Every structure is written in structure tokens, then in C-alpha cells.
Amino acid sequence: MKFNRLENLIGALSLEKLKNSTILVIGLGGVGGYVVEALARSGIGNLILVDYDIVDITNFNRQIVAINDNIGKYKVDCFKERIESINEECNVTIYNLKIDNDNIKDIFNAKIDFVIDSVDDIRAKVSIINYCLEHNIDFISSMGTGNRLDPSKLTITTLNKTYNDPLARIIRSKFDKNIQKKITVCLSLELPLKVTDKTVIGSNAFVPSSAGLLIASHIIRKINETK
């Protein structure tokens, strides 16, 4: 049995909850890709994946589907194939699109238990957060992981408690303080490091992936807490 060691850890009932859950992951980059990987290997039964990008050579230092054979392929297609090779019982729905206010409702056409926002675009991020808040859907939003080297500085908190994160500062400006308390985020408390070329965000294999795994752990534990 593929998940017998996980079942030994969390119990058969909890594993069944995971199998019956539907998780939406928006953004399949360095963070979102590892969220998907961990969820697929945790027996999640239904995954909805959203991304508009292709695998590029600049992804190789941090993204799990970035291999030579995948260059030029859409990330959603690569992940669908990967998940099905890990857990053939997982139902995978993919959307090859960029989220905006006009199309966001199209991907929420199923009962979704949890949403992961791991996009970089500010407008898309705000749209996702607003939609989840308005429809009372559990979610977590990934803040910045670029220009950092220390994965031990990653944490999960609420938006109002964030600091040392330029992306979180921008997102905070979009919501009043009472709303900020309702927005769960994953961020690094490490100050962004100075880079040689300021036009490019520095990145590595271990901080974004650690953020993705931390988010996946948060989701698995949240699902198991439900009755």
C-alpha cells in the first residue's frame, strides 16, 4: 500500500479525509510545485492546479518539474503527468490560465476544501484572497521566498504580523487591519539579501521548497483537525 506509512502515523480515518479532500493550488513555481508534490504523496484525492507558464531553463535551480525533457512544456501538463505517476487514484484537474477578476470564478466550480495561493502577481494574489474571504474558503497565501538563504526562518502566521517581507508589505496595504488578521500566510522572517543584479530575484533550491513543504504540512494538519 502506497500510503501505509502515512496511515501508521495519522490513522486510517485521517487518511480517508485526505483522500476525500479537494485542494486548489494556484501557481506552480518553486513554492507551489513542492506543495503539490507533498500533497500528492500524502494521498490527497483531488487536486486542482492553475498556472499559465511553461518550464524554462531559469527554473532549474528551484522547481521540481524543471528537467530537460520538460523545457517548453506547460507546467500544468507536467504536474498532471507527475502526480498520476505518483498516485494514479488522485483526480487532477488543470487550468492553463492566469488568474484575474474575470476568470477566478471559473476555477471555483467545485467544492474546494483548501486553497494555496503561490502566485507572484499582486493583482492575482489580491483577487484570490478576496474570493476566499468572500466565500469562506480556507486558504493560505505564500509571501516572498526570493533573496533568502535560511529556510529555518520560514513561518506561518497572519498577514498583520508580517515583517521583513516586501511582498507582504504590499499585500498589507490592500487590506485593513481587521481583515489582515483573517489572512493566513507563509513567509520568511529573514531580511532579503542584497543581490548583484537587482533586476533579477535571487533564488535557490531550499527556501522555496521548504516553504512549499511547510504549507503542505499546514494543510494536512488542518484537514485532520476537521470532524
Automatic annotation (TrEMBL):
InterPro entries: ThiF/MoeB/HesA, ThiF_NAD_FAD-bd, Ubiquitin-activating_enz. Pfam families: ThiF. Signal peptide: none annotated. CDD domains: YgdL_like. Residues 8-223 form the THIF-type NAD/FAD binding fold domain. GO terms for biological process: cyclic threonylcarbamoyladenosine biosynthetic process. GO terms for molecular function: tRNA threonylcarbamoyladenosine dehydratase; ubiquitin-like modifier activating enzyme activity. This is tRNA threonylcarbamoyladenosine dehydratase. It comes from Candidatus Onthousia faecipullorum.
